[in-house]
Design a protein that fits this description.
Blueprint: H1 5-17, E1 22-25, H2 35-38, H3 43-51, E2 58-61, H4 71-79, E3 86-88, H5 96-101, H6 108-121, E4 126-133, H7 140-153, E5 157-162, H8 180-203, E6 209-217, E7 223-226, E8 238-240, E9 250-258, E10 263-266
Helix pairs in contact: 7-8
């Protein structure tokens, strides 16, 4: 259920007042925000109003449904500097047959069109997705289509999960349940492919100076940080070799090494940023 715009703004203001500089809008389907309260999607309005809160440095949107993207929503990522050019787009699968069984209201063709539009209209955008393998009835051909799609879409970030049967659910009662060992084999194959894709995506940023936020410090004094390309808790991190920045502060550092998940960076000696940085 959507919270009223005023309630979200009040909560966001309280978070910023307590020191938060990165705000994340999240829901089961953020692209449907407001439909139950106002009869229409109000996400663009909400994003604009949250971005106006003084003290907000980064704003991030998670869990967007690919069936509900609009021209207005896509334009926000170029219109609002505070809005991270990071899109969480759970596609779940790419076989039209499985997408229909999942009631996802999209097709592979529509997914590919949307991905092309996002990359074409939002320079530097980072795309994250999640997929499910082993959904009831998933054949070798369905899985091969998923792999082919992922190989072409080349998401920067990806989470893969095996379908978990739940008694009493429509999917749980479907025939042709996939054996657990097959699910695991398919998950492993997806992640092998994604490691190569993520490695290449991260490598493009080696040598680049980027704005980052410090999340903490390791025992040996290195900074654990993120750029706009990493959402907290679900993506990798950037390990910055230079100490001197406290958690919650923003700073610039140069990417020096890229892995499939985590990267390394160096920060030139400079003054300790203020809390407003």
């Amino acid at each position: 259920r959507s919270k009223p715009v005023g309630t979200v703004l009040e909560e966001a203001g309280e978070l910023v007042g307590s020191g938060a500089r990165e705000l994340i809008l999240i829901g089961q389907d953020t692209t449907s925000y407001g439909r139950d309260l106002y009869g229409e999607c109000r996400l663009p309005e909400l994003v604009r109003r949250v971005a106006e809160i003084d003290g907000t440095r980064w704003l991030r949107i998670l869990y967007t449904h690919p069936a509900y993207y609009t021209t207005e929503l896509i334009a926000l990522f170029s219109e609002i500097p505070k809005l991270c050019r990071y899109i969480d787009l759970p596609v779940q699968h790419a076989s039209d047959r499985i997408l229909t069984a999942m009631k996802r209201r999209v097709t592979r063709s529509k997914l590919e069109d949307l991905i092309g539009k996002l990359r074409g209209e939002i320079p530097g955008v980072t795309l994250r997705t999640s997929v499910i393998v082993g959904f009831p009835g998933e054949t070798d051909a369905d899985f091969a289509e998923l792999l082919d799609f992922l190989g072409h879409a080349r998401f920067d970030r990806l989470g893969c999960f095996t379908y978990s049967r739940e008694e009493g659910t429509p999917a749980g009662e479907m025939p042709d349940q996939v054996p657990e060992e097959v699910k695991q084999e398919r998950l492993d194959e997806v992640m092998r492919l994604q490691r190569e894709i993520s490695q290449a995506a991260n490598a493009r940023f080696v040598g680049r100076e980027m704005e980052m936020v410090a999340d903490g410090v390791t025992e040996d004094g290195r900074i654990v940080a993120r750029s706009y390309r990493e959402a907290p808790d679900v993506d990798g991190v950037i390990i910055v070799e230079d100490a001197g920045v406290d958690a919650g502060h923003f700073f610039n550092a140069r990417i020096t090494e890229a892995g499939p998940y985590d990267c390394k960076a160096v920060r030139h000696a400079q003054r300790q940023p203020s809390p407003e940085d």
